[in-house]
Design goal:
The chain is mostly helical. The protein has a domain of 74 residues. The chain is built from five helices and no strands. Helix 2 runs antiparallel to helix 5. The protein is elongated, with a radius of gyration of 23 Å.
């Protein structure tokens, strides 16, 4: 009897841990969390990079291949923190755009 009770308690704990994990993941992936993470990443980049100098140099580049080369070179020559924040920001933007696109498709299909 005691073993059965222990199994039920263990099962209940495991289920509640999973429920809690799903709750936390939903909170972390919500729109507000994305905006906060994007704002923190943008702040980190803006406080570490002279954006006016980057824009000034980017405006001097002629043609798409040269611009892509300039962009890659600029990212390669910055700190790891800025690189990670740029990647994180791009991932959040792509993720949000994908969600918006999927939402618009679902809305169009349902009407």
């Amino acid at each position: 009897m005691d073993t059965m009770h222990n199994r039920e308690d263990e099962l209940r704990r495991r289920i509640m841990r999973r429920v809690w994990g799903i709750y936390v993941m939903r909170r972390l992936t919500g729109v507000q969390a994305r905006v906060v993470i994007l704002a923190v990443a943008a702040f980190a980049v803006l406080s570490s990079v002279s954006v006016s100098h980057v824009i000034k140099n980017a405006l001097q580049v002629q043609g798409l291949p040269a611009f892509l080369n300039f962009s890659i070179s600029a990212v390669e020559r910055t700190s790891l923190l800025v690189q990670l924040c740029l990647i994180l920001g791009m991932l959040i933007v792509v993720w949000t755009a994908r969600d918006l696109f999927r939402g618009s498709q679902e809305t169009a299909l349902s009407s």
